[in-house]
Amino acid sequence: MSKTFVGFGFGAIQGGLFLPAAYKSGNFSRLVVSEIQPESVSQIRQADGSYACNVAEADHVRVEEIAGLEIFNPLVPSDRDKLVDAIASASELCTALPSFTLYDVGEKASVAALLSEGLERKLADSSLPSAVVYAAENDNRAANRLREACKRYLSNSLDERVSFSETVIAKMCSVVIDRERIIAENLREVTNGSHKSFLVEAFDKILIEERVPADFDRGLTQFISKPFLDPFALTKFHGHNAIHYCLGLEAKERGMTYMHQAREDADLLAWAREAFVHEAGVGLRNKFLNFEDELFTQDGFVAYAEDALERMINPYLRDPIGRVTRDPKRKLGWDDRLVGSIRYAMNAGLNPKKMISSARKSLAEIMAEEGIQSQMDSLNLVWKGTTHSEEKEALSDLMLSSHLDP
Asked: What is the pLDDT of residues 27-80, one digit of tens each?
């Protein structure tokens, strides 16, 4: 088929998920990616558009090879022109940047400006295909944010020809740059001599929005479409991500270095299951009480939690605990994974002692990093701007209470 796929950002999500999915589908004749790192562009070109990705199964690591990739640097004028042409002819596109805050940064590097330039051509030429733009940043409003950023550059509405799709990606992906680890684990480099490897888990139940333009024919057919993604996105963030962070903090306290080492501690895994199902799970199931999906039944959520926990401790991912627990100031934010999950549990009438215990460990790390002696001052720092005064006071009392037996 003569479909074109265009990606923005050549990191682990793009290189380890979307591009391989597009390649393996057999539905795209062109794979194009935009990348501002000159070294990455040069390496892929030297490899004639081929690269490798390591996929962690439950019992081994296999290698996937992707070929035919065209890579362009939008900061280079001639490359930018080619990217605009590719965007105009693309039927599916995906942004996979470190954060949605990078959608419209810098005049030359703005993804929104580049994307809009290509989409504007699509609007002007009915022979060009309608398109879906997947936003793969870890935010349940990423697609909406990207749409709004693009509107600043467009003279016409995209609604009839282009849909922006939220995604729920509960797939653990990383870029390994530790040379010793690459050798020890026998990982394939992205390209020979690149000194970095994509390492992703085999899990592929990626959720996308069902809504598409009227005449659209989806090429990425293996993803699961849902009419409404919010419950799944919030469950991934305040369930999977929250407990992943909690488990990392608890494992770190026990002197572990990698997440899979938790496999050897039955008490720790029992603790994590309890926190997942009976604290985070109760809060999420209460929030989505009237949403009809198997996930939000007792049995459905238990199965979800068991699967997620087993994947978190996959020995072939060798996920560093330092990666999981980094940036505590962001992760203890009022609307972020852990505090958001605690708030859902409290709204369901629970005192989520296990998650509160982990939040305290996160708070202690923030105090050490920021050189702050007062716990309350530290909470005020990470919850700055919060207007939920009564809820904030109740949660602060729990966080700072000396009586807590997790």
From this structure: 999 999 999 999 999 999 999 999 999 999 999 999 999 999 999 999 999 999
User: CB neighbours (10 Å) of residue 253?
Assistant: 12
**Any residues with CB less than 8 A from the CB of 72 and at least 6 apart, and which?**
32, 33, 34, 35, 41, 79, 80, 82, 83, 86
- Which residues, given as ranges, of the chain have pLDDT below 70? 1, 402-406
Domain ranges of the chain: 3-227, 232-400
Alpha-carbon span 243 to 406, nearest angstrom = 14
The model's pTM: 0.91
Q: Are strands 197-201 and 173-176 parallel, antiparallel or unpaired?
A: antiparallel
Task: Give the fold, CATH level 3, of 232-400.
Answer: N-(1-d-carboxylethyl)-l-norvaline Dehydrogenase; domain 2 (1.10.1040)
The CATH number assigned to the domain with range 3-227 reads 3.40.50.720
- Between CA 393 and CA 128 the distance in angstroms is 55
Distance CA 93, CA 132 (A): 6
In angstroms, rounded to a whole number, what is the distance separating the alpha carbons of residues 304 and 171? Answer: 13
